[in-house]
Amino acid sequence: MQESSSQRAYQATKDEILSGGMRGGQLLSEVEVAARLGVSRTPVHEAFLRLAAEDLLELLPRRGAVVVAMSAQDATDLLEMRLALETAAVRRLCRTPADVDRLFGDLTALLDAQRRGVDAGDAEQFAAADDAFHRRIVDVAGNGLARRFYGSLSDRQRRMIASAAQSDAHRLELLIDEHRRLAAAIERCDVEEFEAALLAHLEATYRVVLR
What we know:
Layout: H1 2-18, E1 27-28, H2 30-37, H3 41-53, E2 57-60, E3 64-67, H4 72-93, H5 97-119, H6 123-141, H7 144-151, H8 154-167, H9 171-187, H10 191-210
C-alpha cells in the first residue's frame, strides 16, 4: 500500500507539472499535496524525492519543494537534440520509400488526433498527440539508440508544449499547420525542407515559452 500511495503521489504531481497545472516557481507543501490526494505525508515525501532527482522539483528543507522552471538553456538543449534526432531519422527513412508511406499515414492520423484535441479545448490531449507525432518519426526510422534517447526527452517536450499552449492559445492552431508542413516534406522525401521546417517549428515554440 505504501508503494502504491507513493507511486500515485509521484504520478499525480508529475502529471500536474508536465501539463502546466503547476508552474515553475510554485511552492508545494507535502501536507497540502497529501491531503488533496488522500494519502499520508510519507509517500508524498518519497514522490518529491523522485521528482527532485528528475530535476522537476527543488527540495526546500522544512518548507516542501518548489517547481523547477524550464530555463532558456534547457529549452535550447531540447531544441538542438530534437532537431538533430528527427532530421537524422528522416534522412534515414528517405532511403526506404515503403517506410515513408507508412509513416505519412501514421502522421496523418496523429494530425487528426491533434485537431480533435484543439476542437475539444483539451491541451493535454493535444500535447500527447504532439509528442506521438514527433516520436513516431524517430520510431519508424528504426535506430534503436535514437529511439531510446528520444524517449528520454518526452517529459521535457510535453512540458514545453503545455507551456506554449498556456502562453498563447492560438499556438495550437499554428502547430497543426507546422506539423502538416513537416509531414508533407517527409512524403516528398525532402530532407532539407523538413529540417528547415522543423527548425522554424521548434524555434517558434521556444519563443512562446520563454518570452
